[in-house]
Please model this.
Amino acid sequence: MKTISNLKRMQREAAHLKQLGKKIALVPTMGALHEGHLSLARLARRHGDVVVLSVYVNPKQFGPREDFTKYPRPFARDRRLAADNGVDILFAPGNLYADDASVTVSESVLSQGRCGAFRPGHFDGVATVVAKLFNLTRADAAIFGQKDAQQCDVLERMARDLNFPVEIVRAPIARDADGVARSSRNAYLSTAERQVAARFAAELGKSASVGDARWRLEKIAGLKLQYAEAANGRLCAAVWIGRTRLIDNVELKTQNPKRKTTTPKLKT
Model:
């Protein structure tokens, strides 16, 4: 496995691979690799001759009170895991932005609502960094986890509207044995909080509508519901468990929930 940190070297390597007729599959990550990321790397092999996995904690997608400075960065471990899971090139730039960078990529429709309502500027940061990664790696396919459903929606639209010759591949959500969607932020959870996270995943999976999801999630002790919304056939939710924010989504069921609800009558 090659490890590349220099931007121009990555571009030269990608150009050379193209000259050889190789198809490049990209797996963008922020590091702190877990089995979810590694499953994306293995899936990438089916979509390209050369698998490039990027590790870059992108400052542009963190808000001023979010966890950029404490986001885990176990690079030696990441490099070992990438090599063990068939990655051909680990692209780990120190910085992707010029000091006076002033150009960003913005999507104005699909980035609204859901996480976009609570994380202003987040999806501009995501779209900008992914556009840069597409240009640097000359990817033919890019693999993203369905857990970040809104991110997938935004990046599919970006690739279409800006004519990137990249296939956006959505990988199924990777879950641990207790049902929790795999995320680097799961490492922040205490043992008790992990049990709450498992209930979050279970109750969301049982939900048959947005209202049903809100009813179920708001009953869970130790969990604060940020939102539950439907979009593109998915039931999406974000919650706070202690100081950790988790997101998840499931296919939206079409049948009515079995639980019957009634609207309380107003007293007259």
In short: Residues 256-268 have pLDDT under 50 and may be disordered.
